[in-house]
Amino acid sequence: MFQIENVTIVYKNDLRELVKNFSLTIHPHDKIAVIGEEGNGKSTLLKWMYEPESVEDYADVSGKRTVHSEILGYLPQELPALDREKTVYEYLSEESAFLEAGPAEIAELSRKTGLPSEFFYEERMMGSLSGGEKIKIETVRILVKKPTLYFLDEPSNDLDQATLEWLETFIREENAAFVYISHDEVLLEKTASRIVHLELLKRKTEPKITVANTGYEEYVSRREDLFDRQMRIALSERREEKIRMEKYRRIQQKVENDLRSVSRQDPHGGFLLKKKMRSVKAMGKRFEREKENQTEIPEKEEAIMFHFENTRPVPSGKIILDFKEKELRTPDGKEVLVKNPELFVAGPSKVCITGKNGTGKTTFLKTVWQLLKDRTDIHAAYMPQNYEDLLENEKTPVEYLAPERTAEKITKVRKALGALKYTTLEMEHPIRELSGGQKAKVFLLKMVLDGADVLLLDEPTRNFSPLSAPVIREVLAEFPGTVISVSHDRKYIEEVPDTVYELTKNGFLKKE
User: Fold this and answer.
1) What digits encode the pLDDT tens for the residues 287-314?
2) What is the reported pLDDT for 304?
3) Which of 40, 247, 397, 436 has the smallest number of Cβ neighbours within 10 A?
4) CA 114 from chain center: how many Å?
5) What separation in angstroms does the CA of 396 have from each of 81, 197, 377, 408, 422?
6) What is residue 300's predicted lDDT score, i.e. its pLDDT?
7) What's residue 303's pLDDT?
8) Burial class (CB in 10 A: 0-12, 13-18, 19+), 110
9) By CB neighbour count within 10 A (0-12 exposed, 13-18 middle, 19+ buried), where does 65 fall?
10) 333 CB-contact burial (10 Å; exposed 0-12 / middle 13-18 / buried 19+)
11) How far is CA 329 from each of CA 168, 171, 333, 356, 363, rounded to the nearest angstrom?
């Protein structure tokens, strides 16, 4: 059993409470999904639960953590930079249990992850692996310890359809407990048996955590029903209270007027009016007590507000991309990924590219960016899979988005960041301190402010919460320009693109 009691987490840089007096008991075989908006402290909570010392640099945490004979495994949201420079074999060998594993155990690891056992001894660098290959190798290093409790931070990021299905089966069927953060609505629907929902209310000043012993779909449905019912009751009580108080004030005013006008020659009448006033005041106190016991108006985090303004429509039929090459190679040029890749895109279409991990989708999108970025007849913008490729991490969001530093531009940027649920303090934090979802918001906002009409997006929804992702999907579906994207997000693929291609070793295959 694993238990935490009365945990409170405070960020050191702005003294903001992210978690307050939170308690949770994890039972064997629990599948607990941690959900919430970007920057609400989900990763910090998960890291602390796994290893309290790992958050000491940036968070103060109080509370009790009890571990009873559990073997813990942890999958970080991003592979650390030092690990990206190691070969697959070097990375796995740092776990002593891997070096001690016999042939039967290696075969079982191969079966569970779907990777050939010889892959474990590869000399390829971890940083060169596809998203799916990377997460499977990370999983091998965890699996070999035979954990009884897994902590997974965004395990579904960048995974292809087959690997997503593998991950869903792994979480459901592995004989262990799981606590995992995910923004993948389909994964949540298929795997979660309990929900932990982190919210920050009242302009991100008041933490609220809801624990529900139910699946994701039922939780969302119940939450909406409960919110609507509580809101109706609360508003009804306030309407009744308003009517009651108006009637009370009329009675009080009449008695006060009668008292002022009563004749001194009528002491009995004055006595009765004073008695009546005492009754009126008692009624007022009763109404005040009833007001204190009114149903509370419910609060919940609202979705972000986001839209592309002043984006010029791309003329119908305008050639955006006419890509024809003999081959597409890995960035180091050593390996051929795709033979004879050809893709034609005319405005204002929305294209999504899918395919197995490692087929070259990200490499292709980077290549397209190099082709389009200097064109003057369009304004292309690019969101890479690895945000650090383009973001300037030491700048604040305001500095990055308003390099001119004019008062007008700064005001516009601050207003836009506020609509994306940034607090004033978060606007002044270095970008490196932001969560993945907050960094993604910076990218999208830059595209808006720059007036981009062609968007190149590598996994655009990967770091957005289930509350924000539908907004992003709707905005991109209605975008008047052209979108060329890579995505494995099943809801994104259903709702945004008008054309979907699968990238294979032999080129692009149009999917019906």
Assistant:
1) 777 777 776 666 655 656 677 777 788 8
2) 66
3) 247
4) 28
5) 22, 28, 31, 17, 12
6) 56
7) 58
8) middle
9) middle
10) exposed
11) 31, 34, 5, 16, 8
The span from the CA of 282 to the CA of 328, in Å, is 84
pLDDT in tens, 474-488: 999 999 999 999 998
Is the Cβ–Cβ distance between 325 and 341 less than 8 Å? yes
pTM, whole model, 2 decimals? 0.72
SS (H, E, C) 29-75: CCEEEEEECCCCCHHHHHHHHHCHHHHCCCEEEEEEEEECCCCEEEE
Say which amino acid occupies 391: L
Q: What letters, b where the CB count within 10 A reaches 16 and e where it falls short, cover 73-92? A: bbbbbbbeeebeebebeebb
Q: What is the 3-state secondary structure (H, E, C) of 272-292?
A: HHHHHHHHHHHHHHHHHHHHH
Q: Give the per-residue pLDDT at 147.
A: 95
CA distance 453 to 479: 9
Low-confidence ranges of the chain (pLDDT < 50): none
Does residue 198 come out as left (phi exceeding 0), alpha (psi in the -120 to 50 range) or beta? beta
Q: 104 to each of 74, 112, 114, 144, how far by Cα in Å?
A: 24, 12, 15, 12
pLDDT for residue 168: 93
Neighbour-count burial of 224, counting CB atoms closer than 10 A to its CB (0-12 exposed, 13-18 middle, 19+ buried): exposed
CA atoms within 13 A on the CB side of 81: 2
